[in-house]
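Thread: Newbie trying to understand structure tokens

Hi all, I'm a second-year student working on a class project, and my supervisor (Dr. K.) asked me to get a predicted structure for one chain before our next meeting. I've only ever worked with sequences, so writing a 3D structure as a token string is new to me. If someone could post the tokens and maybe explain what I'm looking at, I'd be very grateful. Here's the chain:
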Amino acid sequence: MTRRIFAAGAFAAPAALGQPKRWWMEEPVRLIQTNLRETDTALDPERLVRQLMDLDANALLIGMGGIVAHYPTSVPFHYRSRSLRGDMFGDVLRLAHARGIRVIGRFDLSKTQKAVYDARPEWFFRKANGGPVIYNGLYSTCINGGYYREHALTILNEALERYDVDGLFFNMFGNPASDYSGQPLGSCTCAECKKRPGPAGPMLARAKNEVAAKIGALIHTKRPNAAFWTYIQDHVDGIMSESNTAVDRPLPVWPYSASDNVNRARNSQPGKMAFNLCIGFVDIPYRLTTVPAAEIQTRLYQNMAHGAGPAFVAIGTLDQEDRGGLAAAKPVFAFHRKHAALYAGQESAARVLLLGGRGASYQGWFRLLTELHVPFAVSDNFDWIGKREFDVVISATGIPRELAPFKVLAAGAVEPAIAVKGRLRRRRESTRSAYFRVRDRKLLPSLESTNLLFVDGPMLEYQVEEPAALTLIPPSMFGPPERVSMDAVETETPGLLAGERHVFLPWDVGGLYQRHSSPAHAALVSDLLRYLQPRRQVLTNAHPLVEMTLMRQAAHGRTLLHMVNLSGHSSTAYFAPIEMRDIEVRVLGSFARARTAAGAELRTTVADGYTRFVVGSLGAYEAIILD
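---
Reply by user tm_fold:
Sure, no problem. This is what the structure looks like when written as tokens:
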């Protein structure tokens, strides 16, 4: 896959007069999603809308059609819910719109009934043995078959002509790799898939984009003010993601899930709004019980801090078996409604860019920057390079050639695509029991009391002409205690290649930090960032578990500092955060005022180009307005 990097551009401007209204970009959205079961079609529309109003929601994502139609469809092979009495979806839409609540219809075209399979078997996914994929009585369709490519458009045409929806969302779009029990499905072997050239992965990606283009065009033609969403990035109006839990997911828990999803989406596709769905239930097999309240609130606040709205997902109606999830979401939604003007048109003000990735190396860098209170944008969109200035670009896996014009801090045992100081000699696959000797205290002042940093994993060995700030002590004896490092050898092999614009650590500091959280590794990164960005945007005494994001609202001419308190996160648990007091903050720039979202004025002083203020108390979340 070609990686693309974004140098973040501006958010899209409000729609011009006479142009379709992109409400999802212009309005502060508070979304509730109800994943309806077939029996939930019998819900009371008036009660549902009252519950939405009580929650301060202004957008509803609700089941409409596909597997089950929650309205009286007339299209053949579109299955009406057996619990349908009248027009549930139409009634909800009418009542919600009367109260200013947007309604997004949810479709799932990935499965349908046996009767459809019996009539049109060529529309369906075929396993390697030629048989269909069946789960709980439903038959999986194929993205290349006539159901997706033709019949779905007939279904959607009826829905869009009948209902003035504000958008449509499509779940499980395309051919899933596994079923709901996690069993792999393999590649489809239907006749239509066999006709298409190339490996299955790229072929299916093209197929999804082809179908998405048709669906998007239909939606925008029939309902110009409506949006199209699914879990892809092309042809859609917004980027959908989820923050969820899973019973079999490897540990550790990733506490920055929402921050990661929204930051990446907003800075990779700036013309599209991020919708990060905070899943309230434990996992797909346990949809009726909720995760801890503090986990829900943390994720909702992280959405808000990075430029999206709170979005909460529940199974069934809002008369929940476990009401803790909605109770947790309610105060966050109320805060967002009360201070809605802060949450429209936000864009990142960060001057550090982290290239998007996956896995321990990327997550380690994400944590390092967050814990060091370095504002940063995440992007994997190379199409936007050069369209906004950054002080530093960080790469967890080497230096792509596209980064040559930028100041770069990179790491990993991946040979850079641009020239760095030194000549590559070899790749060492293992450094177990190896260290780096700290040689340059001027470059690395935070390591004043540290002589050695440990290293583990692969490393690139370079030969350099000048003394290096870190030098390798290759693997040596580590046991028994009487023999530790008695055979250690000091070398000139650099663990750090520092040029004027490009700094390269030829080993995986991000992955090591994610696994071990060594303060020496954090100090190293902090010093290297200070070398490349001498004047940081934020200086603070805040605890490392206070996440800070710096956002800009150009329309209001102001800067927002968001603070999310993650001190309640411990291992797999989320508890109420510990109140933080007397947090001193200095933000680069000269601001006349600083105040909390509630309007409390904070005394400011300006010195050396920074505006200083003190946040007296921080609970779960706060937004500071600077203008």
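A couple of things are worth pointing out once you decode it. The longest strand covers residues 580-588. The first helix runs from residue 23 to 26. Feel free to ask follow-ups in this thread.
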